[in-house]
Design a protein that fits this description.
This protein is of the alpha/beta class. It contains 8 helices and 16 strands. β7, α5 and β8 form a beta-alpha-beta unit. The longest helix is centred in the first third of the chain and has 17 residues. The radius of gyration is 21 Å and the shape is globular.
């Protein structure tokens, strides 16, 4: 992994995946129209046609597994724009925001191939982005204004257009009230059945931990809104509330202290913002497993934030298989005999995947722990 330039390269229109039929207009519930492309084959997109793909491809020649873990690496939004208003992590190119949908037959073919690859692989990892949490009611970051998602446009997309552009009928659930999605629970099942060795996530919503994955089973590269860590002894505290209190981007101190009487160090939240360093321990786990993996399943990520997006690249460079489930096209991973892109929602993909593996997606069960202290008195 290498440090990003001070400015991201200028964007230009990229080629969208070819379709078998011309785009069709379908009305939304509010009467507006959006473009929906169906029957999408595995596109053979030239990665050089996209500035994002070209930039990432240029980095691959010097990419070595686990090399990045030797030092902290700042978070950078690849393909984003730096303008008069400062850093803009939204997608600038309208073509790159287009959403595509495999028909039932095409999706079935891709799921069959995914299952075949999983059975042939010895070390499968999963890489997740915000798309795995949209069905939980948490919006993603880069979906366009005309997205089919009930959570509506992405956070950065709305910021670029102004809050007044927020469409009516958006269904949003506060993070602390959100429950793990079927995709989260399907990932738990794949871990339980030893079908998946490790999960790497860019999400800060804490839903992977809430679903039942332990810290030894996953890396949360960009932090966890419920997690805070002691600056002195590094003990972690997983809370049932959002730990971030500071207003400054680079200020992570909270008002709480470590519980250890011999420490009492200041606690800080674990959220990673653009330009900040990733936690070395989480980064090391992620790239260690990427170096071992012969297959990576990417769920709900546009793969635009470095160094996180280099996890599936390591797998690809090492000759492994990469499967991507996302509504937007990922131009730096054109489909070939080792890579495929499935255009559908994550829950639909995971439901079909587990069905073919003859596994059931478990229901989420909220578990609470109560600690009781008892003291014996002279009377009793």
């Amino acid at each position: 992994a290498t440090k990003a330039p001070a400015k991201a390269p200028p964007t230009k229109p990229s080629e969208a995946p070819p379709t078998k039929a011309p785009p069709k207009e379908q009305p939304q519930q509010d009467g507006a129209k959006r473009e929906v492309v169906q029957d999408v084959p595995s596109p053979a997109v030239d990665p050089d046609d996209s500035p994002l793909a070209a930039e990432l491809k240029a980095k691959k020649s010097g990419l070595k597994p686990t090399e990045t873990v030797e030092r902290h690496i700042p978070v950078v939004g690849t393909g984003s724009k730096v303008g008069k208003g400062g850093f803009n992590p939204a997608i600038e190119d309208e073509e790159e925001k287009r959403e595509f949908f495999d028909n039932e037959q095409e999706l079935g073919r891709k799921l069959d191939r995914t299952v075949q690859w999983m059975k042939q692989s010895k070390h499968v990892i999963i890489f997740t982005g915000a798309g795995v949490s949209t069905s939980s009611g948490i919006p993603d970051f880069r979906s366009g204004m005309n997205t089919v998602l009930a959570t509506g446009p992405g956070v950065w997309e709305l910021r670029a257009h102004g809050e007044s552009a927020t469409p009516k009928g958006r269904r949003i659930v506060p993070i602390l009230r959100a429950l793990p999605s079927p995709t989260h629970m399907a990932i738990v099942k794949l871990h339980q059945e030893n079908k998946v060795a490790f999960t790497v996530s860019q999400n800060v919503d804490g839903l992977h931990r809430r679903s039942g994955l332990g810290p030894d089973q996953m890396s949360e590269l960009h932090g966890n809104t419920n997690l805070e860590t002691c600056q002195k002894c590094h003990h972690q505290y997983l809370r049932d509330f959002e730990t971030r209190e500071a207003f400054g981007v680079f200020d992570h101190r909270t008002s709480r202290l470590c519980d250890d009487p011999g420490c009492r160090g200041v606690l800080q939240d674990s959220i990673i913002n653009f330009g900040e360093n990733l936690p070395e321990g989480e980064l090391k786990k992620a790239f260690d497993h990427a170096g071992k993996a012969d297959m990576c399943i990417v769920l709900g990520s546009s793969l635009r934030v470095r160094p996180a997006c280099q996890v599936p690249e390591v797998v690809q460079v090492n000759g492994g298989k990469v499967v991507i489930c996302n509504l937007q096209n990922i131009p730096q991973f054109p489909s070939d005999n080792r890579t495929l892109q499935a255009y559908c929602k994550c829950d639909d993909f995971m439901a079909g995947l587990l069905q073919r593996l003859e596994l059931e997606i478990p229901s989420f069960v909220l578990k609470r722990r109560l600690r009781i202290s008892a003291k014996q008195t002279a009377e009793s």
